[in-house]
Amino acid sequence: MTTTGPDQPSDPTGDLAERKMRFLFALRSRGVTDARVLTAMERIDRGHFVRGIFADRAYEDMPLPIACGQTISQPSVVGLMTQALNVQPRDVVLEVGTGSGYQAAILSHLARRVYTVDRHKRLVREAADLFRTLGLTNITALARDGSFGWPEQAPFDKIIVTAAAEDPPGPLLAQLKAGGVMVLPVGQSDAVQSLIKVTRTDTGFDYEELRPVRFVPLIEGLASE
Ligand code: SAH
After folding, report:
1. What's the number of domains the chain is made of?
2. Which residues contact 55 (CB under 8 A, 6 or more apart)?
3. Is-contact 196 184, C-beta < 8 A?
4. What span, in angstroms and rounded, lies between the C-alpha atoms of 209 and 110?
5. Residue 79: inside a domain, yes or no?
6. Whether the Cβ atoms of residue 98 and residue 117 lie closer than 8 Å to each other
C-alpha cells in the first residue's frame, strides 16, 4: 500500500524517483558538473517550491510561474549560476530576488550564511515559512529593494542577482568584498540578456560574459503586496 503524507507528493506509479534522476541527468548534460552544487540540488527538492497546477512539472528543466507574476528559474540556470559563484563553506552570500526561495535554499547548503531579499512581501513570507519547515536556519529573508543591497550585513563574499538590470547596480558592486564574485543577468527586459560574472580585484572589477539568459526585470521599489 502507498501512504501519502503532507510532504510526500502522491506517487502511485513510483515514477517520482525516476523523474528526480532525470532531473539530475538534465543538469549534468547542461553543464552543471560541480559535485557540491549537484549534491545541494539533489538534496533540495524543487517540488517544495512550485505550487498549484505547475507542481507536477517541478522536475522539468524549465522556469515555472510562481505567485506575484514572478518565476522560479530554470534548474540548469540555477545550477550554472551557483557553479559560477564558486561558493565556499565560510562564505556570506547575498541573493537579490528571493522568488520561491529555491536558489536561496541551494545556497544555504553551500555557504555559511545566506541573506536574501525580494520586493514582494508575500514571496518573502512564503519563502521564509518554507526555510523554517525545511530547517534551513542559515537563511535570513527580508522584503526590500535589493538594488541597494543589504548595507547592514555588507560586505559579502558572493552576490547573486536573479532579476535582470541594465547594468550591475552600483550599491551591489560596493558591497562586494575584494576577491568577491557577483553573478547576474544584465540587459533590457524582454530582450536577450547576458549572464555575467563580476570579480572584485584589489584595483577594480573584472567582467566575464557567461551565456545568454532570460530573467524577469529588476524593478525599483517595494511592491504593494
Ligand atoms: N531566485 C528565485 C527566482 C527569482 S525571480 C527563485 O529561486 O525562485 C526574480 C525575483 O526578483 C522576483 O521574485 C522579483 O520580485 C524580484 N525582484 C525584482 N526586482 C527586485 C528588486 N529591486 N529587489 C528585490 N527583488 C526584486
Report:
1. 1
2. 9, 47
3. yes
4. 24
5. yes
6. yes
Going 102 to 219 to 84 to 203, the CA torsion angle's sign is: negative
Tell me the H-state helices in 86-169. 102-110, 121-133
Task: Find out whether the beta carbon of 102 lies less than 6 Å from any atom of ligand 1.
Answer: yes
Range of the domain at 185: 15-213
Query: Which CATH number do you get for residue 117?
Result: 3.40.50.150
CA of 128 to the centre of ligand 1 (A): 14
Active site residue 189: no
Q: What is the distance between the alpha carbons of residues 140 and 158, in angstroms, rounded to a whole number? A: 15
Nearest to 130 by CA among 222, 44, 224: 44
Which atom of ligand 1 is least distant from the CA of 49? 8
**Assigned domain for 169 exists:** yes
Strand, coil or helix: 150: coil
Among protein residues, the one whose CA lies closest to atom 17 of ligand 1: 97
- pLDDT at 4 (0 to 100): 45
pLDDT attached to residue 62 = 96
Q: What is the pLDDT of residues 73-109, one digit of tens each?
A: 999 999 999 999 999 999 999 999 999 999 999 999 9
Residue 3, domain member (yes or no): no
Residue 108 lies in a domain: yes
